[in-house]
Amino acid sequence: MNATHGLNIAIHSLVREGSRVLISGFEHNAVTRPLHALKARVEVAGRKLFDPEDTYLCFARRIRDCDAAVCTAVSNVFGYRLPIEDIAALCTREGVPLIIDASQAAGVIALDFQDLGAAFMAMPGHKGLLGPQGTGILLCSSEAAPLLFGGSGSESREQEMPPYLPDRLEAGTQNVCGIAGLLAGIEYVRARGTEEILRHERALLRQSAAILRGADCELFTEEGRNQTGVLSLRSPRMDCELLAAQLGERGICVRSGLHCAPLAHESAGTLETGTLRLSFSPLLDPGSVSKACMILRELI
Predict the structure, then answer these.
(1) For an engineered disulfide with 162, which of 62, 104, 148, 155 has Cβ 3.0 to 4.6 Å away?
(2) Both 208 and 253 in a single domain?
(3) In-domain check, residue 108
(4) Each residue of 190-238: pLDDT tens digit?
């Protein structure tokens, strides 16, 4: 149904009560809450924003003897691109199954699931893949345990869920209309290419940062290759929720608060204030972004 559904399947397939699980300091509640519910022993590695070397070294120091690892490819709050390829190689060497949360990466960054060697990779349909809400994808190379049990359209005589994919994980009627929309989004991404989409989104991010640097606000950004098309900011002049509401009244849609990722905000030192988040897409044009950022600057 979404990335949360996929991540829950993956986590319940690998983690038991007392399992030692290593995660990054930028994980979403879709990762941390299932681990908490399972009473896993969670260790957090890598709390420095836009510092992939530190993230990798923290994983390397703690990965041994872990039962599983979970790592987001890109922070949904800050657009920070974690060194997921290096972390995946590390997990392979240490024999630790890895779950990748590709929610903010899918459709923007080319990730080869087979080359990464991860056990699972989950993503939503509605973000970079440009599909409808209520759709998602879970890639599996490890044995997967179903969360839902019921009709699968196959093996109907048996009371066990079918042993093969995708039937094993897809009980009940699927969101066929949403899946058709997701296919259309994926076809657009394939035609335009992730490299071009990432280039476009980074250009919009740089444009926005240039406009907003003159305002009284703190921008969470860096000039290198470690950030995708997401820009978080906060201002001492105005609460981020109020700022987002005022933008909404002017027809500008942003997200404010903790973005369902308090761990990421804790790592970045923004837990008490939250941030205002601008998310760019291949369908946005520079003129619209410039207008929105000028209005935001005036409000601040």
Answers:
(1) 155
(2) yes
(3) yes
(4) 999 999 999 999 999 999 999 999 899 999 999 888 999 999 999 999 9
162, part of any domain? no
Specify the number of domains making up the chain: 2
Q: Does some domain include residue 251?
A: yes
- List, for residues 13-63, the tens digit of each pLDDT value: 999 999 999 999 999 999 999 999 999 999 999 999 999 999 999 999 999
Beta bridge partners, 28, equal none
* CA atoms 114, 12, 32, 54: torsion sign: negative
Residue 160 resides in a domain: no
Tokens of 240: 């981020």
Buried b (16+ CB within 10 A) or exposed e, 32-68: bebbeebebebebbbbebbbbebbbebbeebbeebbb
Q: Are strands 68-72 and 20-24 parallel, antiparallel or unpaired?
A: parallel
Q: Which residue range forms the structural domain that includes residue 207?
A: 194-299
Q: Are the beta carbons of 276 and 233 closer than 8 angstroms?
A: yes
- How distant, in Å, are the alpha carbons of 44, 198, 225, 231, 275 from that of 219? 25, 20, 16, 7, 10
- Same domain assignment for residues 139 and 26: yes
Rounded to two decimals, what is the model's pTM? Answer: 0.97
Among 189, 223, 247, residue at a domain's last position: 189
CATH number at residue 217: 3.90.1150.10
For residues 56 and 184, membership in a common domain is answered with yes
Q: What is the CATH number of the domain that holds 85?
A: 3.40.640.10
What is each CA distance from 81 to 10, 16, 47, 226, in whole angstroms? 22, 29, 13, 5
Distance CA 47, CA 142 (A): 28
Site of tokens 């002049």: 237
Burial of 110 (0-12, 13-18, 19+ CB in 10 A): exposed
